[in-house]
Amino acid sequence: MSLEILSENRNLQNLVKKVEEMLNVDITKLPSYELGIEAGINIGLQEGIQQGIQQAQIEVAKKALKAGIDIDTIAKITNLDKDFIKSLK
């Protein structure tokens, strides 16, 4: 009986080793990894562009305030909130 158990344990150990080898995958070589990286870069670029646009709108609003342009007109031109524009003074 104990030889039978030892044999089963040996087979089980071999199976465990095979499963471990199958699960040991370099994720950087998977196609989905590359797609994920690409998607992340695209999202980052879009966010950076949006931040740049918003910063430009704020700069325009600041210059317009200094030039004496009224807040309603600045809000229409920049699409910024009137209260936010007031806070720039």
Q: Could you report the average pLDDT, rounded to the nearest whole number? A: 85
Terminal residue distance: 89 Å
How many strands, what sense, and barrel or not for the largest sheet?
A: none
Secondary structure: helix percent: over 70%
Beta-strand segment tally: 0
Given as residue ranges, the uncertain stretches (5+ residues, pLDDT < 50) are none
Which geometry do the CA atoms define?
rod-shaped
H/E order of the elements?
HHHH
**Count of distinct structural domains:** 1
Give an overview in words.
Helix 2 (about 30-65) packs antiparallel against helix 3 (about 70-80). This protein is mostly helical. About 5% of the residues are buried. The chain is rod-shaped. The chain starts with a helix and ends with a helix. The protein has one domain. It has four helices and no strands. The longest helix is centred in the middle third of the chain and has 36 residues, at about 30-65. The protein is about 80% helix and about 0% strand.
What's the arrangement of secondary structure elements?
Elements: H1 2-23, H2 31-66, H3 71-78, H4 82-87
Helix pairs in contact: 2-3
How would you describe this structure in keywords?
89 residues; rod-shaped; mainly alpha; single chain
